Amino acid sequence: MNKTKQKPNQALSSGHRACGGCGQIIAARLAAEAAGPNTIISNATGCLEVTTTPYPETAWGMPWIHSLFENASAVASGISAGLKQKAQDKKINVIAQGGDGASYDIGFGLISGMWERGEDILYICYDNEAYMNTGVQASGATPYGAHTTTSPSGEQSFGSAFRKKNMPAIAMAHRVAYVATASVGYPMDIKNKIKKALSFTGPKYVQILVPCVPGWGIDPKDTIKIGILAHQTGLWPIFEAEYGKITKVMSCPKNRPAVEEYLKLQKRFKHLFKSESGQVEIKKIQKIADENIKNIKIL
Ligand SMILES: Cc1ncc(C[n+]2csc(CCOP(=O)(O)OP(=O)(O)O)c2C)c(N)n1
Ligand SMILES: [Mg+2]
To answer: pLDDT 10s digit of each residue in the chain, 299 long?
Structure first.
Protein backbone atom coordinates (compact mmCIF):
# COMPACT_ATOMS: atom_id res chain seq x y z
CA MET A 1 0.00 0.00 0.00
CA ASN A 2 1.22 3.48 -0.82
CA LYS A 3 1.43 5.39 2.47
CA THR A 4 2.40 8.69 0.87
CA LYS A 5 0.21 11.48 2.20
CA GLN A 6 -2.12 12.99 -0.38
CA LYS A 7 -0.89 16.35 -1.62
CA PRO A 8 -3.42 19.15 -1.19
CA ASN A 9 -5.33 20.09 -4.35
CA GLN A 10 -4.55 16.80 -6.05
CA ALA A 11 -7.76 15.88 -7.84
CA LEU A 12 -7.13 12.12 -7.87
CA SER A 13 -3.97 11.05 -6.13
CA SER A 14 -1.71 8.02 -6.44
CA GLY A 15 -2.14 5.27 -3.87
CA HIS A 16 -5.40 4.03 -5.42
CA ARG A 17 -5.70 0.32 -6.26
CA ALA A 18 -6.32 0.49 -10.02
CA CYS A 19 -4.22 -1.87 -12.19
CA GLY A 20 -1.00 -0.58 -13.74
CA GLY A 21 -1.92 0.71 -17.21
CA CYS A 22 -5.64 1.13 -16.34
CA GLY A 23 -7.15 3.46 -18.96
CA GLN A 24 -10.03 4.45 -16.69
CA ILE A 25 -7.90 5.82 -13.85
CA ILE A 26 -5.78 7.88 -16.27
CA ALA A 27 -8.91 9.35 -17.89
CA ALA A 28 -10.59 10.00 -14.52
CA ARG A 29 -7.55 11.90 -13.23
CA LEU A 30 -7.42 14.03 -16.38
CA ALA A 31 -11.15 14.75 -16.12
CA ALA A 32 -10.97 15.65 -12.42
CA GLU A 33 -7.97 17.92 -13.02
CA ALA A 34 -9.77 19.64 -15.88
CA ALA A 35 -12.92 20.13 -13.79
CA GLY A 36 -10.93 21.72 -10.96
CA PRO A 37 -11.57 22.04 -7.23
CA ASN A 38 -15.03 23.67 -7.43
CA THR A 39 -16.59 20.36 -8.40
CA ILE A 40 -18.74 17.72 -6.74
CA ILE A 41 -18.61 14.20 -8.17
CA SER A 42 -21.29 11.52 -7.85
CA ASN A 43 -19.78 8.15 -8.77
CA ALA A 44 -21.55 4.91 -9.72
CA THR A 45 -20.40 1.55 -8.38
CA GLY A 46 -17.66 0.03 -10.51
CA CYS A 47 -13.89 -0.29 -10.80
CA LEU A 48 -13.36 3.47 -10.49
CA GLU A 49 -15.27 3.63 -7.21
CA VAL A 50 -13.87 0.39 -5.77
CA THR A 51 -10.22 1.14 -6.58
CA THR A 52 -10.23 4.75 -5.36
CA THR A 53 -12.23 4.52 -2.14
CA PRO A 54 -11.50 1.40 -0.10
CA TYR A 55 -13.02 2.45 3.25
CA PRO A 56 -11.77 4.43 5.18
CA GLU A 57 -9.41 5.80 2.52
CA THR A 58 -9.98 7.92 -0.55
CA ALA A 59 -7.78 8.98 -3.46
CA TRP A 60 -10.14 11.87 -4.33
CA GLY A 61 -9.04 15.37 -3.40
CA MET A 62 -12.48 16.85 -4.07
CA PRO A 63 -16.05 16.32 -2.78
CA TRP A 64 -17.05 12.87 -4.01
CA ILE A 65 -20.00 10.60 -3.20
CA HIS A 66 -20.89 7.00 -3.98
CA SER A 67 -24.37 5.62 -3.44
CA LEU A 68 -25.37 2.76 -5.79
CA PHE A 69 -24.55 1.18 -9.15
CA GLU A 70 -27.56 2.67 -10.93
CA ASN A 71 -28.22 6.09 -9.42
CA ALA A 72 -25.16 8.36 -9.80
CA SER A 73 -27.22 10.67 -12.05
CA ALA A 74 -30.16 10.85 -9.60
CA VAL A 75 -27.78 11.64 -6.71
CA ALA A 76 -26.18 14.36 -8.89
CA SER A 77 -29.67 15.77 -9.60
CA GLY A 78 -30.21 16.04 -5.83
CA ILE A 79 -26.85 17.77 -5.37
CA SER A 80 -27.67 20.20 -8.16
CA ALA A 81 -31.09 20.98 -6.61
CA GLY A 82 -29.42 21.54 -3.22
CA LEU A 83 -26.88 23.93 -4.73
CA LYS A 84 -29.66 25.89 -6.44
CA GLN A 85 -31.47 26.18 -3.12
CA LYS A 86 -28.32 27.59 -1.51
CA ALA A 87 -28.09 30.14 -4.38
CA GLN A 88 -24.40 30.74 -3.85
CA ASP A 89 -22.30 33.09 -6.01
CA LYS A 90 -19.59 30.58 -6.80
CA LYS A 91 -20.27 28.21 -9.73
CA ILE A 92 -19.95 24.61 -8.59
CA ASN A 93 -19.65 21.94 -11.28
CA VAL A 94 -21.73 18.82 -10.71
CA ILE A 95 -20.43 15.66 -12.36
CA ALA A 96 -22.03 12.22 -12.38
CA GLN A 97 -19.81 9.43 -13.64
CA GLY A 98 -19.72 5.69 -14.08
CA GLY A 99 -18.62 2.79 -16.22
CA ASP A 100 -20.34 1.56 -19.36
CA GLY A 101 -22.44 -0.95 -17.38
CA ALA A 102 -23.68 1.81 -15.08
CA SER A 103 -24.31 4.14 -18.02
CA TYR A 104 -25.52 1.93 -20.90
CA ASP A 105 -27.53 -0.57 -18.88
CA ILE A 106 -28.49 -0.31 -15.22
CA GLY A 107 -28.39 3.49 -14.81
CA PHE A 108 -29.72 4.27 -18.27
CA GLY A 109 -33.29 5.26 -17.30
CA LEU A 110 -32.10 7.66 -14.61
CA ILE A 111 -29.59 9.26 -17.00
CA SER A 112 -32.31 9.70 -19.62
CA GLY A 113 -34.54 11.36 -16.99
CA MET A 114 -31.71 13.70 -15.97
CA TRP A 115 -31.29 14.74 -19.62
CA GLU A 116 -35.04 15.17 -20.13
CA ARG A 117 -35.21 17.50 -17.12
CA GLY A 118 -32.36 19.58 -18.57
CA GLU A 119 -30.26 19.26 -15.40
CA ASP A 120 -27.03 21.31 -15.36
CA ILE A 121 -24.87 18.21 -14.89
CA LEU A 122 -21.96 16.67 -16.80
CA TYR A 123 -22.22 12.89 -17.11
CA ILE A 124 -18.94 11.10 -17.88
CA CYS A 125 -19.03 7.48 -19.06
CA TYR A 126 -15.71 5.63 -18.73
CA ASP A 127 -16.24 2.99 -21.37
CA ASN A 128 -14.11 -0.15 -20.94
CA GLU A 129 -16.71 -2.16 -22.86
CA ALA A 130 -17.78 -4.63 -20.14
CA TYR A 131 -18.61 -5.04 -16.45
CA MET A 132 -14.97 -5.24 -15.35
CA ASN A 133 -15.37 -4.88 -11.60
CA THR A 134 -17.40 -8.06 -11.33
CA GLY A 135 -15.36 -10.20 -13.75
CA VAL A 136 -15.78 -9.05 -17.37
CA GLN A 137 -19.46 -9.65 -18.14
CA ALA A 138 -20.78 -8.20 -21.44
CA SER A 139 -22.61 -4.84 -21.36
CA GLY A 140 -24.49 -2.85 -23.99
CA ALA A 141 -21.11 -1.30 -24.86
CA THR A 142 -19.33 -4.59 -25.58
CA PRO A 143 -18.22 -4.66 -29.23
CA TYR A 144 -19.05 -7.35 -31.79
CA GLY A 145 -16.74 -10.37 -31.56
CA ALA A 146 -15.30 -9.65 -28.10
CA HIS A 147 -14.86 -12.54 -25.70
CA THR A 148 -16.34 -11.85 -22.25
CA THR A 149 -17.39 -14.27 -19.51
CA THR A 150 -21.02 -13.98 -20.65
CA SER A 151 -20.19 -14.00 -24.38
CA PRO A 152 -17.45 -16.64 -24.33
CA SER A 153 -15.70 -17.63 -27.54
CA GLY A 154 -15.70 -21.34 -28.32
CA GLU A 155 -16.75 -23.91 -30.86
CA GLN A 156 -20.24 -22.42 -31.18
CA SER A 157 -19.38 -18.76 -30.67
CA PHE A 158 -17.12 -15.95 -31.87
CA GLY A 159 -17.69 -13.88 -28.73
CA SER A 160 -20.32 -11.15 -28.52
CA ALA A 161 -22.92 -11.48 -31.27
CA PHE A 162 -24.17 -7.93 -30.67
CA ARG A 163 -22.96 -4.54 -31.82
CA LYS A 164 -22.06 -1.78 -29.39
CA LYS A 165 -25.03 0.47 -28.61
CA ASN A 166 -24.56 4.05 -29.86
CA MET A 167 -24.96 5.92 -26.57
CA PRO A 168 -23.54 9.26 -27.82
CA ALA A 169 -26.26 9.24 -30.52
CA ILE A 170 -28.86 8.52 -27.83
CA ALA A 171 -27.56 11.51 -25.84
CA MET A 172 -27.80 13.64 -29.00
CA ALA A 173 -31.38 12.48 -29.51
CA HIS A 174 -32.13 14.02 -26.09
CA ARG A 175 -30.74 17.32 -27.47
CA VAL A 176 -28.11 17.32 -24.71
CA ALA A 177 -26.26 20.69 -24.85
CA TYR A 178 -22.83 19.14 -25.46
CA VAL A 179 -21.89 15.58 -26.36
CA ALA A 180 -18.31 14.45 -26.94
CA THR A 181 -16.46 11.21 -27.41
CA ALA A 182 -12.81 10.87 -26.43
CA SER A 183 -10.17 8.23 -25.93
CA VAL A 184 -7.43 7.83 -23.35
CA GLY A 185 -5.13 7.69 -26.39
CA TYR A 186 -5.48 11.49 -26.61
CA PRO A 187 -5.05 12.86 -23.05
CA MET A 188 -5.12 16.60 -23.85
CA ASP A 189 -8.30 16.12 -25.88
CA ILE A 190 -9.97 14.69 -22.76
CA LYS A 191 -9.01 17.73 -20.68
CA ASN A 192 -10.14 20.18 -23.36
CA LYS A 193 -13.49 18.44 -23.79
CA ILE A 194 -14.22 18.30 -20.05
CA LYS A 195 -13.46 22.03 -19.76
CA LYS A 196 -15.59 22.79 -22.81
CA ALA A 197 -18.44 20.60 -21.54
CA LEU A 198 -18.47 22.47 -18.22
CA SER A 199 -18.74 25.81 -20.04
CA PHE A 200 -22.25 24.80 -21.24
CA THR A 201 -25.33 25.24 -19.06
CA GLY A 202 -27.62 22.22 -19.11
CA PRO A 203 -26.91 18.52 -19.57
CA LYS A 204 -23.56 17.41 -21.00
CA TYR A 205 -22.31 13.92 -21.90
CA VAL A 206 -18.70 12.84 -22.47
CA GLN A 207 -17.86 9.20 -23.22
CA ILE A 208 -14.21 8.20 -22.95
CA LEU A 209 -12.90 4.90 -24.33
CA VAL A 210 -10.64 3.40 -21.65
CA PRO A 211 -8.85 0.09 -22.35
CA CYS A 212 -8.89 -2.37 -19.42
CA VAL A 213 -5.69 -4.40 -18.88
CA PRO A 214 -7.21 -7.65 -17.53
CA GLY A 215 -10.59 -7.36 -19.28
CA TRP A 216 -9.14 -6.74 -22.75
CA GLY A 217 -6.08 -8.92 -22.16
CA ILE A 218 -3.56 -6.25 -23.09
CA ASP A 219 -0.01 -5.37 -22.15
CA PRO A 220 -0.19 -2.42 -19.68
CA LYS A 221 2.30 -0.51 -21.84
CA ASP A 222 -0.16 -0.60 -24.78
CA THR A 223 -3.11 1.25 -23.18
CA ILE A 224 -2.42 4.55 -24.93
CA LYS A 225 -1.45 2.89 -28.24
CA ILE A 226 -4.70 0.89 -28.26
CA GLY A 227 -6.66 4.03 -27.37
CA ILE A 228 -5.16 5.72 -30.46
CA LEU A 229 -5.71 2.69 -32.74
CA ALA A 230 -9.38 2.48 -31.72
CA HIS A 231 -9.81 5.92 -33.24
CA GLN A 232 -7.46 5.56 -36.22
CA THR A 233 -9.09 2.33 -37.43
CA GLY A 234 -12.53 3.97 -37.36
CA LEU A 235 -13.88 1.69 -34.61
CA TRP A 236 -14.16 4.57 -32.12
CA PRO A 237 -15.14 7.85 -33.84
CA ILE A 238 -14.10 10.93 -31.87
CA PHE A 239 -16.39 13.93 -32.29
CA GLU A 240 -18.29 16.74 -30.61
CA ALA A 241 -21.97 17.68 -30.93
CA GLU A 242 -23.97 20.64 -29.68
CA TYR A 243 -27.73 20.49 -29.17
CA GLY A 244 -28.04 17.34 -31.27
CA LYS A 245 -25.79 18.35 -34.23
CA ILE A 246 -22.22 17.23 -34.87
CA THR A 247 -19.88 20.24 -34.80
CA LYS A 248 -16.38 18.74 -34.91
CA VAL A 249 -14.77 15.43 -35.86
CA MET A 250 -11.20 14.30 -35.15
CA SER A 251 -9.95 13.11 -38.52
CA CYS A 252 -8.37 9.69 -39.10
CA PRO A 253 -5.16 9.21 -41.09
CA LYS A 254 -5.70 8.94 -44.87
CA ASN A 255 -4.30 5.39 -44.78
CA ARG A 256 -6.34 4.05 -41.91
CA PRO A 257 -4.79 1.02 -40.16
CA ALA A 258 -6.80 -2.17 -40.70
CA VAL A 259 -8.87 -3.30 -37.71
CA GLU A 260 -6.50 -6.30 -37.30
CA GLU A 261 -3.85 -3.85 -36.00
CA TYR A 262 -6.19 -2.99 -33.13
CA LEU A 263 -7.67 -6.46 -32.54
CA LYS A 264 -4.39 -8.39 -32.50
CA LEU A 265 -3.10 -6.55 -29.41
CA GLN A 266 -6.04 -7.81 -27.31
CA LYS A 267 -6.65 -11.32 -25.97
CA ARG A 268 -10.43 -10.74 -26.03
CA PHE A 269 -10.22 -11.00 -29.84
CA LYS A 270 -7.52 -13.68 -30.16
CA HIS A 271 -10.02 -16.44 -31.12
CA LEU A 272 -10.76 -14.50 -34.34
CA PHE A 273 -7.21 -15.11 -35.59
CA LYS A 274 -7.35 -18.90 -35.22
CA SER A 275 -9.53 -19.98 -38.15
CA GLU A 276 -10.79 -19.01 -41.59
CA SER A 277 -14.26 -18.39 -40.19
CA GLY A 278 -12.63 -16.07 -37.67
CA GLN A 279 -11.28 -14.09 -40.63
CA VAL A 280 -14.87 -13.70 -41.86
CA GLU A 281 -15.73 -12.19 -38.46
CA ILE A 282 -12.77 -9.80 -38.70
CA LYS A 283 -14.13 -8.66 -42.09
CA LYS A 284 -17.45 -7.90 -40.38
CA ILE A 285 -15.60 -5.79 -37.79
CA GLN A 286 -13.77 -3.98 -40.62
CA LYS A 287 -17.18 -3.25 -42.13
CA ILE A 288 -18.34 -1.71 -38.84
CA ALA A 289 -15.26 0.58 -38.86
CA ASP A 290 -15.87 1.53 -42.51
CA GLU A 291 -19.52 2.27 -41.79
CA ASN A 292 -18.54 4.49 -38.84
CA ILE A 293 -16.23 6.49 -41.10
CA LYS A 294 -18.90 6.83 -43.76
CA ASN A 295 -21.61 7.82 -41.28
CA ILE A 296 -19.57 10.45 -39.53
CA LYS A 297 -17.73 11.72 -42.62
CA ILE A 298 -14.39 11.61 -40.84
CA LEU A 299 -12.04 11.75 -43.81
C1 LIG B 1 -28.03 -3.32 -8.36
C2 LIG B 1 -26.66 -3.87 -8.51
N3 LIG B 1 -26.44 -4.88 -9.37
C4 LIG B 1 -25.19 -5.39 -9.51
C5 LIG B 1 -24.16 -4.89 -8.78
C6 LIG B 1 -22.80 -5.52 -8.92
N7 LIG B 1 -21.87 -4.68 -9.66
C8 LIG B 1 -21.08 -3.78 -9.05
S9 LIG B 1 -20.05 -3.01 -10.10
C10 LIG B 1 -20.62 -3.90 -11.40
C11 LIG B 1 -20.02 -3.76 -12.76
C12 LIG B 1 -19.64 -2.36 -13.14
O13 LIG B 1 -19.41 -2.30 -14.53
P14 LIG B 1 -19.18 -0.92 -15.22
O15 LIG B 1 -20.26 0.04 -14.88
O16 LIG B 1 -18.95 -1.14 -16.67
O17 LIG B 1 -17.83 -0.40 -14.51
P18 LIG B 1 -16.34 -1.04 -14.58
O19 LIG B 1 -16.18 -1.86 -13.35
O20 LIG B 1 -16.25 -1.82 -15.84
O21 LIG B 1 -15.44 0.14 -14.59
C22 LIG B 1 -21.63 -4.78 -11.00
C23 LIG B 1 -22.34 -5.72 -11.90
C24 LIG B 1 -24.42 -3.84 -7.88
N25 LIG B 1 -23.44 -3.27 -7.14
N26 LIG B 1 -25.67 -3.35 -7.76
MG1 LIG C 1 -17.15 -1.25 -17.70
So the answer is: 455 555 555 899 988 999 999 999 999 999 999 999 999 999 999 999 999 999 999 999 999 999 999 999 999 999 999 999 997 778 999 999 999 999 999 999 999 999 999 999 999 999 999 999 999 999 999 999 999 999 999 999 999 999 999 999 999 999 999 999 999 999 999 999 999 999 999 999 999 999 999 999 999 999 999 999 999 999 999 999 999 999 999 999 989 999 999 999 999 999 999 999 999 999 999 999 999 999 987 54
pTM for the model stands at 0.97
Q: Return the CATH architecture of domain 23-296.
A: 3-Layer(aba) Sandwich (3.40)
102 CA to centre of ligand 1 in angstroms: 6
Q: From CA 241, how far away is CA 95, in angstroms rounded?
A: 19
User: Count of CB atoms within 10 A of residue 63's CB?
Assistant: 14
In Å, what is the CA distance from 163 to each residue of 42, 53, 160, 284, 299? 29, 33, 8, 11, 23
Output the ligand 1 site: residues, CB below 6 A.
24, 45-48, 69-70, 98-102, 128, 131-134, 139
